[in-house]
Amino acid sequence: MQVVILAAGQGKRMRSDLPKVLQPLAGKPLLGHVLAAARAVARARICVVHGHGGERVREAFPDPAIAWAKQEPQLGTGHAVQQALPHLSETGTVLVLYGDVPLILEATLVRLTAAAGSERLALLTVEAKDPTGYGRIIRDDAGRVQHIVEQKDANPEQLRVHEINTGILVAPVARLRGWLERIRNHNSQGEYYLTDIVGLAVADGVEVVTTQPDHEWETLGVNSKVQLAELERIHQRDLADQLLEDGVTLIDPARIDIRGDLVCGRDVEIDVNCVFEGHVELGDHVKVSSHCVLRDVVVGTGTVINPFSHLENSEIGKGCQIGPYARMRPGCRLGNDVHLGNFVEVKNSVIADHSKANHLSYVGDADIGSKVNVGAGTITCNYDGANKFRTVIEDDVFIGSDTQLVAPVRVGRGATLGAGTTLTSDAPAGELTLSRARQVTISDWKRPVKKK
Ligand code: UD1
Ligand code: CA
């Protein structure tokens, strides 16, 4: 099956410089969601019909498997599909989707496709509580679909119909081509309506069938930021429900945001207001406390992420304690039972098993062995203003508080650095190294007093 995605509408009501179909939902452009649904059901060609802002839209999806068709001017949905026809092969069927209808589910499309078979015209319809604005499905006394009438062209009796056209349909390509050649724009909007193919199919004796989605929200479109926000909440709630069904504990399923994919093991617990971006994996018994942001991280079994931690592009081992207020920037790998405490920033570093940096530190471009204690206020001076250098700290090192390690520098196994040290050359293994002005006491010193 082939797919056509209509995405030429301007989206003026978004009041944004960003083309409508590039507006993000769950961190991904609307069109990205539709393409994912399309790819799930169709291995064959996908053609996107674009108009306004088309170049930006194309650049956002450099996939060579997508064919792009330009529609200018925009003369209606039927005219839009017609622009895609040169990109479609004559045989088989085509699924029509919309770039601004992002939540359509694969299961629904599979059902619609099955209903269409190779010869039928299959429409996705919804029994809407409020059908205002939508095209109505008009059936005969036997319940057979006759045609679709748009809201603006409908008579009072037709307006009472609650079964609406979602716009999503599957049609045999060769038939579709013929029907599109025959549609006219003699209607209240002066547009070439895709929906007019239904009446033509009936006239040609082609069977028209309908199926319904599992959820009405799958077929909702986005025309404004209000609708975008509504769909975001619907989608997030659906993702949260899936996690709950998988056995994840969510303290409040209304207060989690997933912008990418979140893979969870058994007995994972997630507190409120956490954001997951990119690809995140949480192992068994991981706990993520409130207000954490995790982007592209893998977290090992039993690790606890304490509140307000911000973790990016890193790997965390088993049984670690992270935060509160920890920051891991890209390129970190923590072993097992590593502790990173409050206001500890780590970047592009490896920290081996049982090591701890509990308070107020910056660890950048460092290789830290196991059972190392990084004292409060320790800083790796990794950058000289032009180049970056590594700090190596071997196993069993104890680093006193308020130490600066001026890289490149190495601290040998079992070494101790005295508090306040500014380390500018390597510290030998097993020894105490410190750089510190000797402490003096001036016993007859007097505090100054204010002159009269
Ligand atoms: C259309 C259907 C209506 C259905 C409704 C569902 C027609 C004639 N009517 O109405 O039966 O109930 O969708 O939302 O099809 N587009 C283009 N090029 C165009 C016109 C539209 O690409 O020239 C795209 C738009 O970007 C949009 C979609 O097609 O994504 C629907 O267009 P819109 O004008 O919103 O159609 P409706 O009037 O809502
Ligand atoms: Ca619409």
From TrEMBL:
<dbReference type="InterPro" id="IPR029044">
    <property type="entry name" value="Nucleotide-diphossugar_trans"/>
</dbReference>
<comment type="similarity">
    <text>In the C-terminal section; belongs to the transferase hexapeptide repeat family.</text>
</comment>
<dbReference type="Pfam" id="PF25087">
    <property type="entry name" value="GMPPB_C"/>
</dbReference>
<dbReference type="InterPro" id="IPR025877">
    <property type="entry name" value="MobA-like_NTP_Trfase"/>
</dbReference>
<comment type="similarity">
    <text>In the N-terminal section; belongs to the N-acetylglucosamine-1-phosphate uridyltransferase family.</text>
</comment>
<feature type="active site" description="Proton acceptor">
    <location>
        <position position="359"/>
    </location>
</feature>
<dbReference type="InterPro" id="IPR056729">
    <property type="entry name" value="GMPPB_C"/>
</dbReference>
<keyword id="KW-0460">Magnesium</keyword>
<dbReference type="GO" id="GO:0016020">
    <property type="term" value="C:membrane"/>
</dbReference>
<dbReference type="GO" id="GO:0009245">
    <property type="term" value="P:lipid A biosynthetic process"/>
</dbReference>
<feature type="binding site">
    <location>
        <position position="376"/>
    </location>
    <ligand>
        <name>acetyl-CoA</name>
    </ligand>
</feature>
<dbReference type="Pfam" id="PF12804">
    <property type="entry name" value="NTP_transf_3"/>
</dbReference>
<keyword id="KW-0479">Metal-binding</keyword>
<dbReference type="InterPro" id="IPR011004">
    <property type="entry name" value="Trimer_LpxA-like_sf"/>
</dbReference>
<feature type="binding site">
    <location>
        <position position="329"/>
    </location>
    <ligand>
        <name>UDP-N-acetyl-alpha-D-glucosamine</name>
    </ligand>
</feature>
<dbReference type="InterPro" id="IPR038009">
    <property type="entry name" value="GlmU_C_LbH"/>
</dbReference>
<feature type="region of interest" description="N-acetyltransferase">
    <location>
        <begin position="247"/>
        <end position="452"/>
    </location>
</feature>
<feature type="binding site">
    <location>
        <position position="362"/>
    </location>
    <ligand>
        <name>UDP-N-acetyl-alpha-D-glucosamine</name>
    </ligand>
</feature>
<keyword id="KW-0961">Cell wall biogenesis/degradation</keyword>
<comment type="pathway">
    <text>Nucleotide-sugar biosynthesis; UDP-N-acetyl-alpha-D-glucosamine biosynthesis; UDP-N-acetyl-alpha-D-glucosamine from N-acetyl-alpha-D-glucosamine 1-phosphate: step 1/1.</text>
</comment>
<dbReference type="InterPro" id="IPR001451">
    <property type="entry name" value="Hexapep"/>
</dbReference>
<dbReference type="InterPro" id="IPR050065">
    <property type="entry name" value="GlmU-like"/>
</dbReference>
<feature type="binding site">
    <location>
        <position position="223"/>
    </location>
    <ligand>
        <name>UDP-N-acetyl-alpha-D-glucosamine</name>
    </ligand>
</feature>
<dbReference type="GO" id="GO:0006048">
    <property type="term" value="P:UDP-N-acetylglucosamine biosynthetic process"/>
</dbReference>
<dbReference type="GO" id="GO:0009252">
    <property type="term" value="P:peptidoglycan biosynthetic process"/>
</dbReference>
<comment type="pathway">
    <text>Bacterial outer membrane biogenesis; LPS lipid A biosynthesis.</text>
</comment>
<feature type="binding site">
    <location>
        <position position="373"/>
    </location>
    <ligand>
        <name>UDP-N-acetyl-alpha-D-glucosamine</name>
    </ligand>
</feature>
<comment type="subunit">
    <text>Homotrimer.</text>
</comment>
<keyword id="KW-0012">Acyltransferase</keyword>
<keyword id="KW-0963">Cytoplasm</keyword>
<dbReference type="Pfam" id="PF00132">
    <property type="entry name" value="Hexapep"/>
</dbReference>
<protein>
    <recommendedName>
        <fullName>Bifunctional protein GlmU</fullName>
        <ecNumber>2.7.7.23</ecNumber>
        <ecNumber>2.3.1.157</ecNumber>
    </recommendedName>
</protein>
<feature type="region of interest" description="Linker">
    <location>
        <begin position="226"/>
        <end position="246"/>
    </location>
</feature>
<feature type="domain" description="MobA-like NTP transferase">
    <location>
        <begin position="3"/>
        <end position="127"/>
    </location>
</feature>
<feature type="binding site">
    <location>
        <position position="20"/>
    </location>
    <ligand>
        <name>UDP-N-acetyl-alpha-D-glucosamine</name>
    </ligand>
</feature>
<keyword id="KW-0677">Repeat</keyword>
<keyword id="KW-0133">Cell shape</keyword>
<dbReference type="GO" id="GO:0071555">
    <property type="term" value="P:cell wall organization"/>
</dbReference>
<feature type="binding site">
    <location>
        <position position="223"/>
    </location>
    <ligand>
        <name>Mg(2+)</name>
    </ligand>
</feature>
<feature type="binding site">
    <location>
        <position position="401"/>
    </location>
    <ligand>
        <name>acetyl-CoA</name>
    </ligand>
</feature>
<keyword id="KW-0548">Nucleotidyltransferase</keyword>
<dbReference type="GO" id="GO:0003977">
    <property type="term" value="F:UDP-N-acetylglucosamine diphosphorylase activity"/>
</dbReference>
